[in-house]
Write a structure and sequence with these properties.
Belongs to the carbohydrate kinase PfkB family. Keywords: Kinase, Transferase. By secondary structure, this protein is an alpha/beta fold. It has ten helices and 15 strands.
């Protein structure tokens, strides 16, 4: 069987002011990192987005039900990577149904904080089905138009959550988050990002562009550009950048974000590219002989990369950690592999 090369997203923490040490190939200690970043000894991380009911379509025609979503997958893997050394909270809205109950139970079992999860009466979570071909490549079918998360930042219950988010040390969201929140929700998220960064928080963004979630490409471009001005860690997929903005190569992508000090670019089977300050790195992917399902490969990469950086790892070390975790994830069906 032909080998499959894993190459997924990576990320960074801002190199504003004293944070320029991240451009070095030498990793600082955790203590130095926390001191320079002015972060609490145990970083508080909030991931904002959507979790859906996941159906895996099997070869015999049966369906295996679980849960997944890009930011939720990252939250779970990030909590597993950091363990007791972090507080990882998930921010979303669910219904009052049995599936939403089961989601919350699963998240609690994974160690995720649920204080910022809204439960909206009469609503339901979204649903998607994964179909995979013989090489492990995915096709998704979605049912999410009435998902509760669309009102995540517009309900009265959202007010204390919005007030609490700027106090976190790290805020993480994706292009899918932007799409499902809608225009009003995006405006409220943007206000949170501005205040959070003023307080010293670090903002992490995974571009995850899904055209079907947007009314048109111009609406998506406007939303992305608004938030990218307030991002400290950019996790970019080259294919998504090409589809959304028309960038033809990595040079155009890097040139488009001069104010983001560290940008990591996913390029399929090619090396992931990292621009950190004035330096650049190419980090080889991991070769996997048998790919089962590529779902959550990029999400898990992002989690391991961010976890490594929070522990003081260099960009190269972080990327290697991301490739290693992603290589494990794509050898198992579904978004979340069993815990060790």
């Amino acid at each position: 069987m032909l080998a499959k090369i894993v190459n997924d997203s990576a990320g960074y923490l801002t190199t504003r002011g004293d944070l320029e040490f991240f451009a070095s190939k030498l990793a600082p200690t955790v203590e130095v990192y926390l001191e320079i970043c002015d972060m609490k000894p145990i970083p508080r991380i909030a991931l904002i987005g959507e979790c859906m009911i996941e159906l895996q379509h099997r070869a015999d025609g049966s369906l295996q039900q679980s849960f997944g979503g890009d930011t939720l997958n990252t939250a779970v893997y990030l909590r597993r990577e950091l363990g007791a050394h972090s507080t990882v909270d998930y921010v979303t809205a669910l219904g009052d149904d049995s599936f939403s109950d089961a989601m919350c139970q699963q998240w609690a079992a994974e160690g995720l904080g649920l204080e910022q999860v809204q439960r909206l009466p009469g609503r339901l979570p979204g649903l998607y089905c994964i179909q995979t071909d013989a090489s492990g490549e995915r096709k998704f079918l979605y049912w999410r138009n009435e998902a509760a998360v669309r009102d995540c930042f517009t309900t009265p219950a959202a007010e204390p959550i919005l007030a609490a988010l700027p106090s976190y040390d790290v805020l993480y969201f994706s292009g899918i988050t932007l799409a499902v929140l809608g225009e009003t929700g995006r405006e409220r998220l943007l206000a949170v990002l501005v205040e959070a960064r003023q307080r010293g928080a670090r903002v992490v963004f995974d571009n995850n562009y899904r055209p079907r979630l947007w009314a048109g490409v111009e609406a998506a471009r406007a939303a992305y550009r608004q938030v990218l001005a307030h991002v400290d860690m950019a996790l970019l997929t080259e294919d998504d950048e090409r589809a959304l903005f028309g960038y033809v190569d990595s040079e155009q992508v890097f040139a488009a974000y001069p104010d983001i000090s560290e940008v990591v670019l996913k390029r399929g089977a090619d090396d992931c590219l990292i621009r950190c300050g004035a330096e650049r790195f190419a980090v080889p992917a991991v070769v996997v002989e048998q790919v089962v399902d590529t779902t959550a490969a990029g999400d898990s990469f992002s989690a391991a990369y961010l976890a490594s950086r929070l522990r003081g790892g260099s960009p190269q070390e972080a990327a290697l950690a991301g490739h290693w975790l992603a290589s494990r994830v794509i050898q198992v069906p579904g978004a979340l592999i069993p815990r060790d």
